Amino acid sequence: MNDFKLSILDLLKEDARLSAKTIATMLGAQESEVDAAIAEMEQEHVIVKYATVINWSKVDDQTVTALIEVECTPERGRGFESIAERIFLYPEVKSVYLMSGAFDLLVEIEGKNLKEVASFVSNKLSTIESVISTKTFFILKKYKQDGIIFEEFEDDHRLIVSP
């Protein structure tokens, strides 16, 4: 990946609505070069989606988000790949990560309520043969996501203490 494409990715990561013309101006390049580079990165699945970060707490949204630690036994020849694939194919699953440490996979899911999340864990996730254990954590509030701070906080009004 060359520096030109990396610069385009950096700009699109900050604002996916930037036009090729604006990016070209910012980088001192031709619009056609930017268009070609973006098309190539889309075709190669380097760019897979243009997304919007939404502060759902500002919307009347009752969705429940949970992070689930999954401990599982890797399969011979495929490791964790086939287990991760079985899990990420469920529509309620938003993300799956292979992790280092005390557990193997971290699964992010969304449900309409706690009961729906509990049903997913007990009826779908826990029944997968390779899954040894799960530990579920519910997200109560998001303060920051993808570098975006959701809340405005007051300045620090503590007194300075000096020795």
Describe the structure.
By secondary structure, the protein is α+β, with helices and mostly antiparallel strands. It folds into 2 domains: 3-43, Arc Repressor Mutant, subunit A (Orthogonal Bundle), CATH 1.10.10; 59-141, 2-Layer Sandwich (Alpha-Beta Plaits). It is built from 5 helices and 6 strands. The strands form 2 sheets. Strands 2-3-1-4 form a 4-stranded antiparallel β-sheet. A two-stranded antiparallel ribbon has the order 5-6. Strand 2 and strand 3 form a beta hairpin. The longest helix has 13 residues, at 31-43. It is extended and about 55 Å long.
How much of the sequence lies in strands comes to: 15-25%
Radius of gyration from CA coordinates: 21 Å
Structural class assignment: alpha+beta
Largest sheet descriptor: 4 strands, antiparallel
- Second CATH tier, the architecture of the largest domain: 2-Layer Sandwich
- What letter string, H or E per element, gives the SSE order? HHHEHEEHEEE
The average pLDDT is: 90
Q: Would you identify the regions where 5 or more consecutive residues have pLDDT less than 50? A: none
Number of strand elements: 6
Shape: extended
Strand arrangement in the largest pleated sheet: 2-3-1-4
Quaternary structure state of the chains depicted: single chain
The CATH class of the largest domain is Alpha Beta
**Please, what is the CATH homologous superfamily of the largest domain?**
Lrp/AsnC effector binding domain/regulation of amino acid metabolism (RAM) domain
Helix content: 25-40%
Give the helix tally.
5
Distance between the termini: 51 Å
- CATH fold node name of the largest domain: Alpha-Beta Plaits
The total tally of domains equals: 2
Pfam families: AsnC_trans_reg, HTH_24
Organism: Cohnella faecalis
Protein name: Lrp/AsnC family transcriptional regulator
InterPro entries: Dimeric_a/b-barrel, HTH-Siroheme_Decarb, Tscrpt_reg_AsnC-like, Tscrpt_reg_AsnC/Lrp_C, WH-like_DNA-bd_sf, WH_DNA-bd_sf
